[in-house]
Task: structure prediction
Amino acid sequence: MIDAENFLFNNVQGALKEIYSISTQNIVFQKTRKEFVGDFTLVTFVYTKDSNKTPEQLGTEIGDYLVKSNSFIEGYNVVKGFLNISLSIQFWINYFNEIKQKTTIGFKKENSSGKMIMLEYASPNTNKPLHLGHVRNNFLGYSVAQLLKANGHQVIKTNLVNDRGIHICKSMLAWQKFGNGETPKSSGLKGDHLVGKYYVAFDKLYKQQVEILITEGHSKELAEKKAPLLLEAQEMLLLWEAGNLEVLELWKTMNSWVYEGFDITYKNLGVDFDKIYYESDTYLFGKEVVEQGLSKNIFYKKDNGSVAIDLVAEGLDEKIVLRSDGTSVYITQDLGTAIERFKSYPQLNQLIYTVGNEQDYHFKVLFKILDRLGYHWAKECYHLSYGMVELPEGKMKSREGTVVDADELLEEMYETARLTTEELGKVEGFTEFELDNLYRIISLGALKYFILKVDPKKKMMFDPKESIDFNGHTGPFIQYTYTRIKSILRKSENLLDENFDSLSIQSIEKEIIRFIYDFEAIIVEAGKAYSPALLANYIYEFTKLYNRFYHECPILKEENSQIRNFRLHLSKASAQVLYNAMSILGITMPERM
Result:
């Protein structure tokens, strides 16, 4: 496979050795900035001392040598200490001849890196439906997993279900009190929505009880701790951890309702998992870890019976790892789960947690405790932190105040996609079934792309209508361009597999080949940064470039058969890049729109 950087490396290395007797491996190229002419840029400052030349002299002398010694280097220019090198049209044609039929453009061979990575995302609580925050979490986690796979890593996609704890007992207790035997079947509600309804009911009554206690003279802090409903929930948690059969049976039943609801939402979101962990399976091991840490004086018991660790020396605070009543906290089960994962997968190289930035501190503490416990792999744990998603006021319905339900969001996106497509008159020739499928592909593509094009670390504003603009920085714009190419290819009579030697092409055609060449480097860069946004924004720029080519260069109407065939191949390769990039983002590409 033609590698431009390696080609230039060998030629520049030869120039440095012959002109200045410099033998070095320190040769790094950058992509030439848009405002300058060139394909790759060499920084010459690093060779001034050994050559006794100014950066400008170095650039000129190396540039002259390169142009004279190799016909694939057609020109250069020097801007201060930067040598901008232009490769010939034939170089890029040769590259294109190699990749034009490849369906795996940009991808490294599966499992070729020898690195195994476990990536956790979703991680819902079984007391309420998935919401907008989970939507960003799932899309980000899934797409980063796809990015890592494209970089040749073996990836295990995991979901840690928070299926136990006081918050779960709250919805269980409310159902006991107010449910009257209601089930998903009897209510017509998805299981996760039904359980969420009782979580809200608990919160409503709890707040009423707190207000009553405050009016009776209790402080707000004491009232929140002594509200009868909360005390009952805490008692239920103790019974659950003690193995009370009645409580366990209710827990299993209500969780099964939630899982059925989650499965529907995951399917509609287009995400999946290789392995699902449940906190109820790992929290006891977490308790054992705490006991072992106590015996080694890593943890200590406080006067009230709770167990803690002092992390002040590391710039953190004291952290409780076990409550005074013996029940576990989040970090207890997180310790158990992390250790269990590395035990189950001894060849695991890295563990990535996809969790919102409100938990930044939690993961600093978790990784530090694992390190204190002596686990060398603690340094290979990484928190993929992301910002919150906000919506313009009034854009979406909500079941729980400011929380936007994921299922409602998907329904709203589908309806927006339907209305937009019909308004644009893009429904001719489709059956009802095909239209329904198309609306789902467009709406989900719009939602995923709009979320993933934003740097994960940044907070973002989501506008459903803006996300389905067929001419904007959106998923549907990219999908529509893909279907345009597929239409062109369907209309072409034949597509001859030929090499395009000594072909004269337009500068925009070279630019497209150059963009295709950059695709693999973008995948590598995005994978290292855990940022699908880098890929999303690359593919948008590429889509704009292809559309400019489409309007400037005739394809099917081109009279020269070799040029026509080249442009068809260029279009086919462009469609493959669009398809591959969007598949990493988890976005389906329709065959026609």
User: Anything to note?
Assistant: The two ends are 35 Å apart (CA to CA). The longest strand covers residues 154-161. Residues 448-584 form a domain with the Isoleucyl-tRNA Synthetase; Domain 1 fold (CATH 1.10.730.10).
